[in-house]
Amino acid sequence: MGLLEQKAAAVVEALSRVELLAPSAVAARARDVWAQCFTLERLALKRAVLRSAISKLEANWCPRNAERCQDSHHASAFVAWELLVDWGRLEDEERWENLDFLQYVLQDSRALDSEHVEQVLGAANCVTWWSEMIGGWVRDPLLERFRAVRSNYVDVAYRSLFE
Ligand SMILES: [Zn+2]
User: Fold this and answer.
1) pLDDT digits (tens, 9 = 90+) for 11-50
2) Cα(139) to centroid of ligand 1, in Å?
3) How many A from CA of 78 to the centre of ligand 1?
4) Segments forming the whole domain that contains residue 20
5) Measured in angstroms, how far is the CA atom of residue 69 from the centroid of ligand 1?
6) CA distance linking residue 54 with residue 119, whole number of Å
7) Measured between alpha carbons, how far is 35 from 126 in angstroms, rounded to an integer?
8) 60 C-alpha vs ligand 1 centroid, how far in Å?
9) Residue 88: how many CB atoms within 10 A of its CB?
10) DSSP code per residue over 60-91
11) How many domains does the chain divide into?
């Protein structure tokens, strides 16, 4: 049994005790935490692949004047970054049409090694949760949601001690 499965099993077991013993409001918030853990766990690998691709591409943007830049690798890094950020919002057909182009700009950017390019292209086939995984420059929606549901749970569990 892998570490992730062990942790998941421990959470399920803990949750079953909460369901049995805790007030229903606490149990409901605990179920939210569990659901959010499950989502994060399911998406963890793909999320790591995409977020590191995004930051490597950003690191390969033109360090000088992008408007006058003649370096195709810098331009490709920017175009690939832009495509990845918007990928989840494209129509299926547009994604299909752009897949070869995505591969080209990822390779031409020289920001990612070939294995990483393959992983990104593999991830690009399924866009469920895409925007949440990508987040933004500073935002990380999945983790923010996790912190929110966790603090709801902690609040309600804490208050239940004094009721
Ligand atoms: Zn440049």
Assistant:
1) 778 888 888 888 888 888 888 888 888 888 888 889 999 9
2) 27
3) 10
4) 3-160
5) 4
6) 13
7) 21
8) 9
9) 16
10) TS-SS-GGG---HHHHHHHHHHHHHHHGGGS-
11) 1
